[in-house]
């Protein structure tokens, strides 16, 4: 399929993003890696991806008019492009994050997953992001995350070598950062502030072991989880279930498309 890229908008550093902008970019990242045969996406496909029930937190219900407004803003910031298929009438959209960031494929998958779900523990993140790009071990994930933290795209609740640490993207808006429960305030000039005191780490470990904790993403507050991270087997099973759910949804979309073409 030949594509004509309408590359409007100057390249800018990826900055703070609204909740809807994060969802749109996350979907474009995900679909570019998991279903490249259907990528770039039409507006309708993008709306379906934003509102799908699997691999999303929170669940959304955006209409195409809302998404079209978001796309216009992202195009002006140089983060996406509109493309036309040769002889096609429907405009399609693709992200330009590999052009405007130095992210590797694994880092792109990690950022896509964080944009779609928010704050996560390392085991969860590795399992979920691996469906988009191979991340063989937690050590590989830590290496990618450390680079993203140095580039100020990711923030952490502590040293990545410690047990039970959670990470999140660092692209929340200033209004979101001011709300209780946001992990760390993001600044374009300052990197994430990690605990550097052994006494602070001891207090944090003690508190984590004595009580349940809250997943404190501004998009997922007040959800209580166990202090100990889930097993790798459970995370793999959850990832497989999510993948199967997404596969079923893609098959349903293809059936609907075929029925429309056949006039059924």
UniProtKB/TrEMBL annotation:
It comes from the Bacteria. It holds the Pfam family DUF480. Residues 172-233 are annotated as: Disordered. InterPro entries: DUF480 (IPR007432), WH-like_DNA-bd_sf (IPR036388), WH_DNA-bd_sf (IPR036390). Residues 217-229 have a biased composition (Polar residues). Keywords: Coiled coil. Residues 234-261 form a coiled coil. It comes from Rubinisphaera italica. The lineage of its organism: Bacteria, Pseudomonadati, Planctomycetota, Planctomycetia, Planctomycetales. This is DUF480 domain-containing protein.
């Amino acid at each position: 399929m030949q594509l004509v890229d309408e590359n409007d908008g100057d390249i800018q550093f990826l900055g703070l993003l609204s909740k809807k902008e994060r969802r749109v970019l996350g979907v474009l990242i995900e679909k570019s890696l998991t279903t490249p045969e259907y990528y770039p996406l039409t507006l309708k496909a993008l709306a379906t991806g934003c509102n799908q029930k699997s691999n999303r937190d929170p669940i959304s219900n955006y209409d195409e008019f809302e998404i079209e407004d978001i796309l216009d803003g992202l195009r002006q910031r140089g983060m996406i492009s509109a493309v036309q298929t040769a002889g096609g009438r429907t405009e399609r959209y693709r992200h330009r994050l590999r052009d405007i960031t130095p992210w590797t494929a694994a880092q792109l998958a990690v950022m896509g997953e964080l944009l779609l779900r928010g704050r996560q523990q390392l085991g969860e993140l590795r399992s979920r992001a691996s469906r988009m790009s191979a991340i063989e071990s937690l050590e590989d994930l830590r290496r990618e995350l450390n680079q993203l933290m140095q580039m100020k795209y990711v923030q952490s609740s502590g040293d990545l070598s410690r047990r039970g640490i959670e990470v999140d993207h660092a692209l929340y808006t200033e209004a979101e950062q001011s709300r209780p429960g946001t992990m760390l305030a993001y600044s374009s000039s300052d990197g994430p502030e990690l605990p550097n005191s052994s006494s602070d780490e001891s207090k944090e470990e003690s508190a984590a072991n004595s009580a349940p904790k809250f997943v404190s993403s501004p998009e997922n507050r007040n959800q209580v989880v166990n202090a100990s991270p889930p097993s790798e087997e459970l995370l793999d099973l959850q990832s497989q279930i999510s993948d199967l759910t997404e596969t079923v949804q893609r098959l349903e979309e293809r059936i609907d498309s075929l029925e429309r073409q056949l006039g059924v």
